[in-house]
Amino acid sequence: EYIPYKYVFLFLGIGLLIEMGTGVNTSIISTSKKYKFNTYFNITLAILVIVLNYFLIKELQLVGAAMASMLAMTIVNFLRWYFLYRTFQLQPFNSKFLKALILAITFILLCHFVTYDANPFLKLALNFLSLTIIFWGLVVGLKLSEDVNKWLLKMKTKFF
Q: How far apart are CA 119 and CA 20, in angstroms?
């Protein structure tokens, strides 16, 4: 019965992933001397959500509301990134982040387009386990995160 709303969850999930992936921008700005700009970004976010909801809900109903939220979060987070870059010459993202992002998007698309018949709970568990193992295996193998690799090395020496 929830199948018609799968795109609502998809767009909200993508929006939240973008928010989590760029969340450091908000923290940096809010702890800097330019902390007031976070208020301006939040006002911009509210205005964007209202305007985008006005147009997208008319056309796409609930999916439009989810899409409006995702687009607004994406735009505001891009503006925060640009603000950090122009104001403090900070670039919190590098090529490794881009590689991990492409990898994550690929896995999200694989989950969406590769289908098979199984009990929904079993399917959820299988997708979660297999994609988590493959994703993190690639992240470690490609050395996309120094922190993860250091932590794994520490765990290896601690337990083995």
A: 30
